[in-house]
Write a structure and sequence with these properties.
Strand content: 15-25%
Pfam families: Response_reg (PF00072), Trans_reg_C (PF00486)
Organism: Actinomadura sediminis
Low-confidence stretches: none
Largest sheet: 5 strands, parallel
Oligomer: single chain
Distance between the termini: 46 Å
Number of strands: 12
Protein name: Response regulator transcription factor
InterPro entries: CheY-like_superfamily, OmpR/PhoB-type_DNA-bd, Sig_transdc_resp-reg_receiver, WalR-like, WH-like_DNA-bd_sf
Keywords: DNA-binding, Phosphoprotein, Transcription, Transcription regulation
Structural class: alpha/beta
Length: 226
């Protein structure tokens, strides 16, 4: 079973899609506009989005770009045009797959299953280790040199995101988008959470061991130098 967000402004089509997906045991939510879709994705990210391009408030390609700014959720677009330039444009804008209207329920479910399989194969490792720092993503537990860290939900998400990219400087804008699921925000929010994390890691900004701030750029997590 997957969590599916159906973005479709036609109430009859939306109801039909939700009925079909629900019959396949998926947990289905819906949105009728681009803005509602963005709110749903940031509030509770689904496993996959089915996106109709004929929305009343925004062009489909713009919606894709905005979705990609706040989430890496797989997106299957539904388009009435079956020409190569249009399909290339959609894939370049961030679509993972597409469906040409009209499409059958069997075709829809086959495309969804393929996208979900690809997403599962490309998912992150279940455990991350950076120096003495160990993170269990399934259990949502983190430890340092064998001692549990006792992180809050947001602290864990921030640490896990950085640990999945060891040695790389991660921009603050990326952290806002991927950890906080916000396209825009206040850098102070990140600074506060980094301060809390450093305290639990037994370090300070002036004397970092794992968390290194690159002024004007972002944050880098790396193992302590021997």
């Amino acid at each position: 079973m997957a969590s599916v967000l159906v973005v479709e402004d036609d109430p009859d089509v939306r109801s039909a899609l939700m009925r079909e997906l629900g019959a396949r045991s998926h947990a289905v939510r819906s949105a009728g506009t681009a803005m509602d879709a963005l709110r749903e994705v940031t509030r509770e990210p689904p496993d996959v989005v089915i996106l109709d391009l004929g929305l009343p408030d925004l062009d489909g390609a713009e919606v894709l770009k905005m979705l990609r700014g706040v989430s890496d959720v797989p997106v299957v677009v539904a388009t009435a045009r079956d020409d190569e330039p249009e399909i290339v444009r959609l894939l370049n804008a961030g679509a993972d797959d597409y469906l040409v209207k009209p499409f059958s329920a069997e075709h829809l479910n086959a495309r969804l299953a393929a996208v979900l399989r690809r997403a599962a194969r490309s998912g992150p490792a279940a455990e991350l280790t950076v120096g003495g720092l160990h993170i269990d993503l399934d259990r949502r537990e983190a430890s340092l040199d064998g001692a549990a860290l006792g992180l809050t939900r947001r602290e864990f998400d921030l640490l896990a995101y950085l640990a999945a990219r060891p040695g790389r400087v991660v921009a603050r804008r990326e952290l806002l988008a991927e950890v906080w699921r916000q396209a825009y925000g206040d850098d102070q929010t990140i600074d506060v959470h980094l301060s809390w994390l450093r305290r639990k890691l037994g370090e300070t900004a002036a004397a970092p061991r794992y968390l290194h701030t690159v002024r004007g750029v972002g944050v880098r997590l790396a193992p302590p130098r021997a």
